[in-house]
Prior knowledge:
The protein is α/β, with parallel strands linked by helices and 186 residues long.
Amino acid sequence: MHGNRIQVTTPIEASFRVVEPSLTLCAAVEHDGDVRRRILALKYQNDRGQAATLAEFLVPLLQDIEPHPQAITWAPTTTRRVRERGLDQAEWLARAVARELHLPCKRLLKRVNRESQAGQNRLIRLSRPRFRARVRRDVRCVVVIDDVITTGATLRAAAQALRAEGVEHVHAVAVTYRRRGRGAHR
Length: 186
């Protein structure tokens, strides 16, 4: 890593994108190289300065999206992980993106399970994340931020919790995605 700036050419086309009726799930780049090192520095070395740099990958993906989001939130990690690391990396990313897009960043999700996804196989990852949402009735479109998509289970579970509370559309985005067979858990 050389300094804190990464040259991001605009607009970024998502390297990974899934569109479903009430969910758009996408990630900017593959979980590799300098971007991977920056995520790890934010996550495990408490290098909070990386959040603004990594947000540069997400902002172009969200600038002209439809429907237009009313708020940005994040897929919270477990309480144990926050205690161990000193931060929730997804929250820091969400706040950095919200600042750039001039949108409110709100804690709309609470993780209701304590188990971490790290190191688990695909089947366990797909069944594990669970969230509870608290959303005002007039909020119809939300962006949910996470750092890495491995199976998509975390962001799908977050979107499901938000939709259960009346949110009509969720844009779920991550900085990176892991391709199956390249460090991803099968």
